[in-house]
Amino acid sequence: MTAAPERAGRPVAPIALSELATEIAGCRRCPGLVAWREAAAADPPRRFAGQEYWARPVPGWGDPAARLLLVGLAPAAHGGNRTGRIFTGDRSGDFLFAALHRAGFANRPESTGAGDGLVLRDAYIAAVVRCCPPGNRPATDERDACLPYLAREISLLPGVRVVVGLGAFAWDGYLRAMTERGFPVRPRPRFGHGAEVAVGPHGLLGSYHPSQQNTFTGRLTEAMLDDVLLRARGRALGG
Q1: pLDDT digits (tens, 9 = 90+) for 141-161
Q2: Strands of 123-127's sheet in order across
Q3: Which residue ranges form the domains of the chain, and what is each CATH number?
Q4: What is the pTM of this model?
Q5: Phi/psi at 204 (nearest 5 deg)?
């Protein structure tokens, strides 16, 4: 068997991550989310008519040896729920991956589908909730049902040094997952764009979510996201 790749003396587990991804994709813990994601797939907007939707929970993806972890809220109904890859096929992903490309974490600035040739370098992307929720607002019990997946994903990414929480929900979800892993932070730090705090072995940075609500209004600009990602790069890669 080929040994797992190593970075800075810390082994990574791509096989275990793949097994976890399969487990996540088969999850049906939350009946309301199962019904919602499948209903979205059955009644797509005209621009996606005739496309086959993933319509299952969306695992994390990226470089198993990543030193940067990005955490989002949940897949979009006609983005990740359609393509099977978080932040892929929607406007939020367009904004995020362009920034990741500028920061040197992605080989191309677009993320359109699972077979588009996009490769993440030293970065991994996950979400707090793995099914698209109505109105992008998961219920508390749905968040709590999904959190163990994020905690386990983090445990399988031992090279991670910096985490970027994309929005307050992701910031809080990451902190809850780390508490589950035995790294509670008290008092709990408040989210803010550019906020930074140490959590166990990680540095946590906050960024506004790259949703259209934020990017179209100027609440989050390219320069603002670039600043967070370049700070993350410097802390994660030591450069």
Answers
A1: 999 999 999 999 999 999 999
A2: 61-62, 123-127, 68-72, 162-166, 202-207, 196-199
A3: 12-237 (3.40.470.10)
A4: 0.93
A5: -110, 125
